[in-house]
């Protein structure tokens, strides 16, 4: 499981000129899954994101978590996080989990962030073509990979 995390001043997702999900500030999460992902990876990354101290305190040090600052989450499914562009010019997406499996894990991930950690989680529509607007704060952008965290 991979999550491209961006600290945001604002973020929204639009489909056919209609805003589907929107947050005033917090984190925008682009979320992708691979074939071997399970509930274990979902829990690992949800826990990591909930406690990650990437917001500045009064001394301008990244010392506060999303929970500490009361921010929201915009979570967007993103199968292209598992693109393989090593060969040729057209990326392969064979490392991405099949849609039906990824959708179950994506919904579980968002539910865990809401239920277990108390976040307001806005989303796009799984599998839809979406326009995502992100006002990156910092900029702060991090790639989280469950394979790296499990080491």
Automatic annotation (TrEMBL):
EC number(s) reported in the record: 3.1.1.96, 3.1.1.-
Record note on domains: A Gly-cisPro motif from one monomer fits into the active site of the other monomer to allow specific chiral rejection of L-amino acids.
Protein name: D-aminoacyl-tRNA deacylase
Record bears the keyword tRNA-binding: yes
Subunit and partners: Homodimer.
Short motif Gly-cisPro motif, important for rejection of L-amino acids, span: 138-139
Keyword tRNA-binding carried by entry: yes
Family to which this protein belongs: Belongs to the DTD family.
Keywords for the protein's UniProt record, in alphabetical order: Cytoplasm, Hydrolase, RNA-binding, tRNA-binding
Function: An aminoacyl-tRNA editing enzyme that deacylates mischarged D-aminoacyl-tRNAs. Also deacylates mischarged glycyl-tRNA(Ala), protecting cells against glycine mischarging by AlaRS. Acts via tRNA-based rather than protein-based catalysis; rejects L-amino acids rather than detecting D-amino acids in the active site. By recycling D-aminoacyl-tRNA to D-amino acids and free tRNA molecules, this enzyme counteracts the toxicity associated with the formation of D-aminoacyl-tRNA entities in vivo and helps enforce protein L-homochirality.
Main location: cytoplasm
Record's catalysed reaction(s): glycyl-tRNA(Ala) + H2O = tRNA(Ala) + glycine + H(+); a D-aminoacyl-tRNA + H2O = a tRNA + a D-alpha-amino acid + H(+)
Superkingdom field: Bacteria
CDD domains: Dtyr_deacylase
Pfam families: Tyr_Deacylase
Record localization: Cytoplasm
